Every structure is written in structure tokens, then in C-alpha cells.
Amino acid sequence: MDFIYLQTFCExxxxxxxxxxxxxxxxxxxxxxxxxxxLEEQYGAVLFERYGRRMRPTQAGxxxxxxxxxxxxxxxxxxxxxxxxxxxxxxxxxxxTLAAFYLPPVxxxxxxxxxxxIIGLQSGNEASIVQAVKDGACDxxxxxxRVTENPExxxxxLRKEEFAIITRPDSPYSQLAEVKVQDLAHxxxxxxxxxxxxxxxxxQALKQSSITHQIACEFNSLEAIKQCVLGGLGIAFLPYxxxxxxxxxxxxxxxxxxxTSHLYTQVIYLERKWRSQAFQxxxxxxxxxxxxxxxxxx
Length: 298
Prior knowledge:
The longest helix has 29 residues, at about 60-85. About 45% of the residues lie in helices and about 20% in strands. It has helices at about 5-15, 20-25, 30-45, 60-85, 95-100, 105-115, 125-135, 195-210, 220-230, 245-250, 275-290; strands at about 50, 55, 90-95, 120-125, 140-145, 155-160, 165, 190, 215-220, 235-240, 255, 265-270. The chain has eleven helices and twelve strands. β8 (about 190), α8 and β9 (about 215-220) form a beta-alpha-beta unit. The radius of gyration is 24 Å and the shape is elongated. It folds into three domains: about 5-80, Arc Repressor Mutant, subunit A (Orthogonal Bundle), CATH 1.10.10; about 90-160 and about 265-290, D-Maltodextrin-Binding Protein, domain 2 (3-Layer(aba) Sandwich); about 165-255, Periplasmic binding protein-like II (D-Maltodextrin-Binding Protein, domain 2, 3-Layer(aba) Sandwich), CATH 3.40.190. By secondary structure, it is of the alpha/beta class. Strands 4-3-5-12-6 form a five-stranded mixed beta sheet, sandwiched between helices. Strands 9-8-10-7-11 form a five-stranded mixed beta sheet.
């Protein structure tokens, strides 16, 4: 039996729609229809029936569905075991912030006990990373977001992140002990790209208080954002860990922002994922690592 047919069957059951399943899998709609028809021929039973605009599994389809999930999970486990023995690779999906300022010491510690394991990084925003983990494109994800709740995923919060308004030392804002939302009226903001969780957090705070502001620039590069702040183009809102060095050198000021963030650095992986010894070891290192978080030098 072709595993692709079972994967397609599970996607149709998930979405209740051949077209949506085709989009999720990257197939054409006729291809999905053909695969389901071939699966029905193999089992000698109709697997879906239409209810209004949705396709629902028949009684036979309901019986097959849990077995299909188990078969695909076992296939993924077998592939993971074989891949680990042949290549020794773990692929992590993460955002630039964590790749640059969280992962390096974690990976250095991990390599002390697993020098032959290759770590691959796939960058993206939180939504794309979550999807990559669900699809099996990444072994695990490292994201900065509200605590993830998803029945398919295991989420392990590692630490709550501290955020700050970033300015030049000679900025009028630098005289404030703490920046309130109202202090940002008419501010020129240098923001991260759309889809970034802490960008959304700041804009949500401004919207809730009806604060007028201007987006001066937006980048997917933290270094570009910091250089623009240094150049006097505006102020930024960043995790404190990303500017510790510049704050210590007196190049930038990091001012506490009077708005509750509730954003956590967290590791996510598929609940059904087989965890190799190396995979579990990496999780353990992440769980025990604590980066400096104190807002010093303000």
C-alpha cells in the first residue's frame, strides 16, 4: 500500500474538503480524488460521503482513520531512526532572535556530548515554524510566543522573555525610568517584519490605547534595526537579550515597557514524535539553560 494514499486520506478527513487537502499537500484536486478512489479500491469500501459542503468519513473511513495515523507514525519513526543512524541530523526551526541570542551556547553544550550530530537550522516566523513541526519538516521548533496549546504538539516553556523600548542614549525617551504606552504617542517605530509575535504585541498595545504612531522602517534583521536606532531613525521594541552588549557598551538604552508581555521562549515538537537519545539530550540541555535576563544598565 502506498503511504501517500494514507497521508492524503488523513488530510481529507482533517479538512473535510478535497480542495483544502490538496492545497495542504501541494497536489492538484483531481490527484487527491484519484488517490482516495484507489484507496477505496484497495479496501473495497467507500471511505467518504458528503454532508452539505463537507466530506466526512463513512463508518469504514472512521475505522480506518486511527490505523492510518498509527501506520504513518510508525513510518515516520522508522525513517527517523534510519536517518539518525545514517546522517545524525537534527533540524531545528526557529526565529532569528533565538538563533542568534539563545541557541549558540545551547548548541555548544550539546556538542560536548554529541559531537557527531549535525544541527540544521531553518528560519521563519512562529506560524511557519509551528506548521513545519506539524508537517515533520523540522524535528523541533524554538519559538517566542504565548504558550502554545495544540493537541498535536508538546510545548515546553523555557523562560519568560523580557522586552524593552530601545533608544539612543541622547533620545528624549532615555530620560524615562519606564516607558508607558501613552509615552509612545507619535513615536517613529523601527519594527521587525510582519508575523513577528513581539511586533504584534507592541502594535496591539498601541491600538488598545488608540495611540497614534508612525512606522519608520521594518526589517527582518535585528542588526539592521539596532543600526537604525543608533542612526536616530526611531525607536525599537526588542527582547532585552538582543541588545545586552550594546547597552553594556553605552551605545543604546533599553527602557522597561509598562505592558505585560506573557511571551515565552518555548520548544515544541510533535506529540507522537519518536525521541532519539540525541533528540532527548537536546531537549534536556534547553530545559537547563538559562540566559541572562536582568535589565541592567538602565
